[in-house]
From TrEMBL:
This is YdhG-like domain-containing protein. Pfam families: DUF1801. It comes from the Bacteria. Residues 49-127 form the YdhG-like domain.
Length: 149
């Protein structure tokens, strides 16, 4: 956890309580969804990311570490949902999602009411299962969202 963040928020609950009312409500929906899918409680990471479960990676360059399998970053006016295996794998489902934008491994949603939650849950579930299956045999050896379609 980022030391600056740790100084400000002692728990996930404290962090969520610091958000505006709408973002709090939407965060609770996503926490419930990701917790149900992963079976893990959220952990506060970096500057406001909530992560669920972890996997280990080790690249040929020697870089290694741990990352969250599922996660999101709640902010007023935009929630970032992280798909560690990338958004490209979900183009068919994303076409049914609603209003959002993407980058390589992020889905940006202004409000949860802009998207179809069952579709988002399906995407998150598939992403979780994929990352967990890739990490069963040891560290993941590449940046999945840059290499998997």
């Amino acid at each position: 956890m980022d030391n600056i963040l740790a100084q400000h928020y002692s728990s996930v609950e404290d962090y969520i309580a610091s958000l505006d009312e709408q973002t709090q409500k939407e965060s609770h929906v996503l926490i419930e969804m990701m917790q149900r899918i992963s079976g893990h409680e959220p952990k506060l990471l970096n500057v406001g990311t909530l992560g669920f479960d972890t996997y280990h990676y080790r690249y040929d360059s020697g870089r290694e570490g741990d990352s969250h399998v599922l996660g999101f970053y709640p902010r007023k006016g935009k929630i970032t949902v992280y798909l560690m295996d990338g958004t490209a794998r979900y183009s068919e489902l994303l076409a049914k999602l609603g209003k959002y934008t993407t980058t390589g491994y992020c889905v940006y949603i202004k409000r949860l009411s802009d998207v179809e939650l069952p579709i988002l849950e399906q995407i998150v579930q598939q992403s979780y299962e994929y990352i967990k299956s890739k990490s069963q045999d040891g560290p993941i050896d590449r940046i999945l969202w840059q290499t998997e379609k």
